[in-house]
Design brief:
Length: 119
């Protein structure tokens, strides 16, 4: 009976481990599909689920940063882009960080210009 319990416990652990990896891939693939179709809200939800399942996959953070940027959520986008860069430094991710910072600054100055009264 003890041997059966050990085998069953091992089997459950293996199933959970492989299930999580599969779960990650499904969320990631679905996030990419939604993003390609222009369904950004849905893509964000799937990429977030993928990062919870596998927080060390840099491309998921990179794609989530792009999705956040498309929504104009630059603080979130910058955080995700920086996480992607920390996990896997690359020119592409560095440029993404710069673009997000530029967009964030541009939005800040646009708000000032719109609020500034003309003389």
């Amino acid at each position: 009976m003890k041997k059966f319990a050990i085998c069953l416990g091992t089997l459950i652990i293996v199933i959970v481990m492989f299930g999580c990896a599969d779960n990650y891939q499904r969320h990631y693939d679905l996030g990419k599909w939604y993003s390609e179709k222009g369904l950004i809200n849905e893509a964000i939800l799937e990429f977030k689920a993928a990062t919870r399942a596998n927080p060390n996959h840099h491309q998921t953070h990179h794609n989530l940063a792009i999705a956040y940027t498309k929504k104009g959520w630059y603080e979130y986008a910058l955080k995700e882009a920086e996480t992607a860069f920390d996990l896997h430094p690359s020119d592409e991710t560095y440029k993404l960080i710069q673009i997000i910072r530029d967009k964030k600054s541009l939005e800040f100055y646009q708000d000032i210009i719109e609020k500034e009264p003309l003389e």
